[in-house]
């Protein structure tokens, strides 16, 4: 298993936890509360990081296979 695969797994765990936290805050405080918005930003950040690592893995795989798009 590559280091990037491990990173993706960890990010998925963090995304799940952050989403659950955001959902709980939403249910308690409503969607306009500053804590809910901060939790949403955190989920977005984690999703963006996941996408960045996934894209990097795909680019490296493409480079290794000699696939020139």
Report on this model:
It is a single chain. This protein is mostly helical and 69 residues long. It has a single domain (3-62), classed as MYOD Basic-Helix-Loop-Helix Domain, subunit B, CATH 4.10.280. The protein is built from 2 helices and no strands. The longest helix is centred in the last third of the chain and has 32 residues, at 34-65. It is elongated, with a radius of gyration of 16 Å. The mean pLDDT is 93.
What helical percentage do the residues reach?
A: over 70%
Rounded to an integer in angstroms, the radius of gyration calculated over CA atoms is 16 Å
Low-confidence stretches: none
Shape type: elongated
Q: SSE string, helix = H, strand = E?
A: HH
Query: What's the number of domains?
Result: 1
Largest sheet: none
Number of helices: 2
Named CATH topology? MYOD Basic-Helix-Loop-Helix Domain, subunit B
Q: Structural class of the helix and strand makeup?
A: mainly alpha
* Overall pLDDT level: 93
Number of strands: 0
Q: Based on the structure, what is the oligomeric state of the protein chains? A: single chain
Report strand %.
under 5%
Distance between the termini: 26 Å
Name of the level-1 CATH class: Few Secondary Structures
**Overall CATH architecture:** Irregular
